[in-house]
Amino acid sequence: MQYKLPAGVKCDGDSHCVLRWWYVGWNNPGIDINGQEQFWNCADIYISDTCGSDPKPSPSSQNPTPAPSSEKPTKAPVTDKPTPVTDKPTKAPTMAPKPSHKPSHKPTSKTPVHTTVKPTAKPSTKPTAKPIAGGGKKAWEQCGGKDYTGSTECVGGSICVKQDEWYSQCVPKRLR
């Protein structure tokens, strides 16, 4: 099969590459991406800058299978002798040791008592960023789309990328 890569996607000349994909089924209406069926997969592929339009078939390395013979066998088949069956066990069963009825000694220490110490000073700085309501979304989570009501903020170095009218997701900056 031959496919055309999207503009800007390259694999180094004639070489093996890894094709990765992620598909969300969206078969659970009214539920965010975490409740949807998701499929992840990858495949090793070969990409060539020099391939022709029709690759030639490779020669077969298998030897031909011989036709069945009509000759009669010269020797009788060999069968293994069956293992003899005995009704008696070969070893006497061993008994597990029984626990003693009383402990050998009493505990010697008591549970330590910890006291709570109040802080001596108030913090000198205030937070600089307002927390994200409902929490930011991690890489590959949904962050937008038509009728989406969750957080539109991404965390951990990801940015919210629109995929289509119905879906946006947090994509790590290193993959953009």
UniProtKB/TrEMBL annotation:
- UniProt lists compositionally biased (Polar residues) regions at 113-127
- Cited InterPro entries: CBD, CBD_sf
- Give the record's keywords alphabetically: Signal
Which ranges are annotated Low complexity under compositional bias?
75-98
* Biased composition, class Basic residues, residue ranges: 99-108
| Positions of the CBM1 domain | 135-171
Say which domain of life the source belongs to. Answer: Eukaryota
Could you state a single Gene Ontology molecular function term?
Answer: cellulose binding
Biological processes, Gene Ontology terms:
carbohydrate metabolic process
For this UniProt entry, what's an example GO CC term? extracellular region
* Classification via SUPFAM superfamilies: Cellulose-binding domain
Outline the segment boundaries, as ranges, of region: Disordered. Answer: 51-139
Q: What is this protein called?
A: CBM1 domain-containing protein
